[in-house]
Amino acid sequence: MVFNVVVVGLGKSKQGNHEECLIDEDCPPGNYCLYEVLQSRCLPCKALHTTCTKDEECCSGQLCLWGQCSDNGTKGEAGSICQYQSDCSPELCCAFHKGVAPRRAASVAVCLSAAV
């Protein structure tokens, strides 16, 4: 049998000054981990009204609401990113919504009204 082995290390990438990462906590403050299959790297946080797929992409104090970094939102409200039902307010459900994700992402789960 032949196995392919991928070695992942943390540190400076050969393609610039972006550090390699596995999770957001591997990145310095003000950065998030852009996880990709072949290469993951730390990138600077995103500004207000910029496209996002998770809260950690947005600069401090902002949340990813309806796929955009916003400074006037509350975690658990309609449009906020969720992984579990418990991430949403009781009257909302956590569901995948293709319209929220940027083109590169397949879908993003957000808190939605059950009536939608």
Describe this structure in words.
With 116 residues, this protein is mostly beta strands. It folds into 2 domains: 1-44, no CATH class; 46-116, no CATH class. The chain is built from no helices and 8 strands. A two-stranded antiparallel ribbon has the order 1-2. A two-stranded antiparallel ribbon has the order 3-4. The model is unreliable at 1-16 (pLDDT under 50).
Strand order, main sheet: write it out. 1-2
**Number of distinct helices:** 0
Indicate the multimeric state. single chain
What does the main sheet amount to?
2 strands, antiparallel
Unreliable residue runs: 1-16
Number of domains: 2
Helix content: under 10%
Overall residue-averaged pLDDT value: 82
* Rg result: 16 Å
- Secondary-structure class: mainly beta
Count of strand segments? 8
Give the percentage of residues in beta strands: 25-35%
SSE run: EEEEEEEE
List keywords for this structure.
2 domains, two-stranded antiparallel ribbon, 116 residues, disordered N terminus, two-stranded antiparallel sheet, mainly beta
Can you give me a brief rundown of this structure?
Helix content is 0%, strand content 26%. By secondary structure, the protein is mainly beta.
Layout of strands and helices, then pairs:
Blueprint (H helix, E strand, L loop, with lengths): L10 E2 L6 E2 L10 E4 L6 E4 L18 E3 L2 E3 L21 E6 L10 E6 L3
Antiparallel strand pairs: 1-2, 3-4, 5-6, 7-8
